[in-house]
Amino acid sequence: MRIDILCKPESESRGERVLDNVREALAQLGVEAEVHLYRDRRKMIDHRVYVAPALMLDDVVRVAGRVPAVDEIKGFIVERPRYVHRFSKVA
Q1: What span, in angstroms and rounded, lies between the C-alpha atoms of 47 and 26?
Q2: pTM to 2 decimals?
Q3: Average pLDDT value for the chain
């Protein structure tokens, strides 16, 4: 799983808060993921995101313009088909 956080260079604190929430959600679920924080306007424009910060899961923009809560991020991770498929074999 790949999680990207896009933010503007001048709004570092909001990007860091999203990063902290993502790390906490991953720790609570026990899921490993590749997490990147980008402070680049060009990358935002390439993904058609015009408000920061933005949270992307596997190249799909899930949240833009606000800092998502930990429970909301956990919901995004759990609803992914690969995650659900992996845990359906165990149960």
Answers
A1: 24
A2: 0.80
A3: 85
